[in-house]
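Next up, sample data.

:::
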Amino acid sequence: MAGRALPAGSAIRDRVVDALFFLLAVGVTALTWVDSAELDVAQGPLVVDLVLGGLSCLGVWLRRRWPVGFAVIAGLVSVYSTSAAGVALIALFTVAAHRSFAVVGAIVAGYVLVPFLTLVVRPDLPSAPWEQIVLGVACVAAVLAWGMLVRTRRQSTRERTRRIESEQELRIAQARQSERNQIAREMHDALAHRLSLLSLHAGALELRPDAVPEDVARAAGVIRDSAYQALEDLREVIGMLRADRAGADDRSDAAPERPQPTLADLPDLITQSQRAGMRVRLDSQVDEPAAAPTAVGRSAYRIVQEGLTNARKHAPDAEVAVSVRGTAGAGLTIEIRNPCPVGAVVATGVPGGGNGLIGLSERAGLAGGRLEHGPTPEGDFRLWAWLPWPR
């Protein structure tokens, strides 16, 4: 206990308990001296007995700092001073409450010898009746049981506190991991879209070196804009990861994050793809896109973005139909269709391992929705998702 900072409430409670124990020790010492005064005991040993008992009462204030030393000294003093018996019981309780059973057993073994040693050093005292001996043994047993009960409860409280702290740390770690997974999904969805535009137009310039200057300038502009946006997305993601690693306290000094895409940004996404040379039709039947919840709008945007990226990779010349409809209470439905390529798939130079659709399924599931994808009997590839839109 030495050197360990305690809460204010615990410190006050400990001081109150020590004061009560001190008053109890003084009371027992006074009662023992009164009983001894009525016996035929020499005045000199009686005074020494009382002085030793009074001094041992002062040790109650040191019992928490040195419980074992206090118990040993109290036991030695009680060999001569019968008025220190109360202090010895308090010392025994302190050891039982703060030390292991092995230490308590050694102290109890020493205390068992105290009555026999008292008969040797204090022949002036009369032999105690058997009723008093039984009462003393019962008191020792009760004090031991009380102290060990207190120790068990303290250990249980500490273990419960450690378990709560461990569970809290686990929840924090899980939250951080969930945040990293979300960042990874955002990185894949955003960068895959930007880089696929880069690859598409760079490939077009490579295949058509004799293109007219206007087409070259348009493609170069798309490449420049896509590269810039990709760098911005990458800078944002790296900033989020650094802030997560540095801790929540350091995030106040970080640069503000860019606004996340919402349902109202879908037309701009379609326009970017059209400028890149894709044939995309948007059928939006959402009266107020800005009224959609932020999480729903962001998930819808990422689903459409990934659907366009997949269409660009696997069917670069096909027309893509994007349909978005929904209202509050009924949910938001997203459907992306494009004809499946016939024969060999045209190589676009854009790598892909199917992780995008897996990430979209996880994103839809986390939002409380569902996602389906695959070929249709009509020969189209269909990406369909439903997201909840609460009222």
The beta strands are 279-285, 319-327, 331-339, 370-375, 380-387. The radius of gyration is 41 Å.
